[in-house]
Amino acid sequence: MSGPAADEAAIDLIGLGELLWDRLPSGDLPGGAPANVAYHAKMVGLDARVATRVGRDMLGDRLIEFLTGKGLQTDLVQRDLVHGTGTVDVTLNNGQASYVFKPDSAWDFLELTDGYRTAFRSARAIVFGTLAQREPTSRQTIQQLLRCVSPECLVTYDINLRPPFISREVLESSLALARLVKMNDDEALSLGKWFSAKIATIEDTARFVWDHSPADWVCITRGANGAALYARDGSTWSVPGIQTNVVDTVGAGDAFTASLVAGRLKNWSPEASLTFANRLGSLVASRAGAMPDITNEVSRMFDELNLR
């Protein structure tokens, strides 16, 4: 099948990878890390889209309707006649989520198209992760697309590990394409296991990334302990944790990533970007699902932080 057409005008951010249904104990909600990032990037004022693939089925129709209803263009959403729309069973333990992903989902079969090449050459930022590369077809498409972006594009690798879909090969090839790398503290320390490297501290992780990636920036979130941002030139910024009444953590890290990238594109200071990202991640964790309607709260945050 042919891929979707894309406008030649510049796109601020493309979330590249999975779009699916999170099957939470409370019911089904739209999700998928790259889609979550695009949603929150749109909420903070970017032209954001998700490059993904869903089935030509009712679940896919509902996802398209959801994105359209939130003002997101769907020209980069492919439709699959053979494979169904992805779902993931989400289990919550004190608000912390664990996941079981449906195999052979439409997003595992993302196609490389001329429309995609055009869109990615125009993008100012791309956010991708590890999970969408679990199958060869999408892995090849994702990595080829990342090689056709402009030199100025902020290619952001949000590691976002989801066992058992982890391999050293994918980690290594993804790091090699990234200009900004983001992960949580558990993922940071686990890199040492995958690469047989000595990583005892968060700072060790930043140095490890710079040895394996062209990235200028490494961001590590630390849950209740806040987050830290490291620059290759040795500069470091950090923010403390925010006391949060956690409903679930689904999508909180993706909201953080969207805000951090938006801050870079909008030329906010590193401190402002990190502060805004930390607050938005905390806000999403206080709500059900990955894409809650928090438009009013985001507007207040802009005013409070003087980021208009």
Task: Give me some keywords for this one.
single chain, 308 residues, alpha/beta, UDP-N-acetylmuramoyl-L-alanine:D-glutamate ligase, nine-stranded mixed sheet, four-stranded mixed sheet, 23% strand, globular, disordered N terminus
Molecular structure report:
Helix content is 37%, strand content 23%. The chain starts with 10 loop residues before the first strand and ends with a helix. It has a single domain (11-295), classed as Ribokinase (UDP-N-acetylmuramoyl-L-alanine:D-glutamate ligase), CATH 3.40.1190. The chain has helices spanning 33-43, 58-69, 114-122, 136-146, 168-175, 185-195, 202-212, 252-265, 270-285, 295-304, and strands at 11-16, 20-24, 27-31, 48-55, 77-80, 86-93, 96-101, 123-128, 154-158, 180-184, 217-221, 227-231, 236-239. It has 308 residues and is of the alpha/beta class.
Helix/strand layout:
Blueprint: E1 11-16, E2 20-24, E3 27-31, H1 33-43, E4 48-55, H2 58-69, E5 77-80, E6 86-93, E7 96-101, H3 114-122, E8 123-128, H4 136-146, E9 154-158, H5 168-175, E10 180-184, H6 185-195, H7 202-212, E11 217-221, E12 227-231, E13 236-239, H8 252-265, H9 270-285, H10 295-304
Parallel strand pairs: 1-4, 1-8, 2-6, 4-5, 8-9, 9-10, 10-11
Antiparallel strand pairs: 2-3, 6-7, 11-12, 12-13
Helix pairs in contact: 1-8, 8-9, 9-10
